[in-house]
Amino acid sequence: MNVAFDNLPARARVWVYQASRPLTEAELVGLLPRLAAFAEEWTSHGQQLLASAQFLHRQFLVIGLDEAAAGASGCSIDASVRFVRELEQTLGVGLLEKSQMAFLNEGELQMLTRRELRAAIAAGQVGPDTLYFNNTVTTKGELDDHWPAPAGQTWLSGYFKG
Predict the structure, then answer these.
(1) What is the pLDDT of residues 25-64, one digit of tens each?
(2) CA distance 139 to 37
(3) Secondary structure E strands in the chain
(4) What is the tally of structural domains in the chain?
(5) Which DSSP string corresponds to 96-140?
(6) What's the pLDDT tens digit per position in 103-128?
């Protein structure tokens, strides 16, 4: 069952998929019915799931699931990945590729590979206070409170030591 993302509880499970490029306004508007249909039809062992899907910052697909009603099974997670692959094909973007990291630098989204990150840190373009989109968050509460978060407070903290 499609639920408004804002109505999901803080404990709701989330999956974040980062697009390889920002989506256009037309793409985002065109996706709204597909995202709603996916959330409406997503099931686990025949049981309706309380779910939501939306794009944030024009570049991040976030799927949320209130597991208090019913949890995701292996089959339902497979179905969500198939949906994400379909979106990749439709949009001509990568959503499952994880080689780039996203930072919010002076209000602009900046995508960097690990090699580029090291160079950006050395050049002073990225620091421990630069906001980083840590797509490994697992709950809506984490997404709301720590996404993005200062890079030095994430798994990237080691890049800023010594």
Answers:
(1) 999 999 999 999 998 888 666 767 788 999 999 999 999 9
(2) 22
(3) 13-18, 43-44, 47-48, 50-56, 60-66, 101-105, 108-112, 131-132, 149-150
(4) 2
(5) S--S-EEEEETTEEEEE-HHHHHHHHHTTSS-TTSEE--TT--BH
(6) 998 889 999 998 999 999 999 999 99
Q: Measuring CA to CA, how many Å separate 107 from each of 32, 57, 58, 104, 132?
A: 25, 11, 13, 6, 12
Residues 6+ positions from 29 with CB-CB distance below 8 Å: none
Rounded Cα distance, 65 and 140, in Å: 9
> For residue 37, what are its two tokens?
């249909």
Would you mind telling me the total number of residues written for the chain in this entry?
A: 162
Same domain, 38 and 108: no
Which domain covers residue 122, as residue numbers?
101-160
Q: Is 61 helix (H, G, I), strand (E, B) or coil?
A: strand
CA atoms within a 13 Å half-sphere pointing along the CA-CB vector of 80 = 25
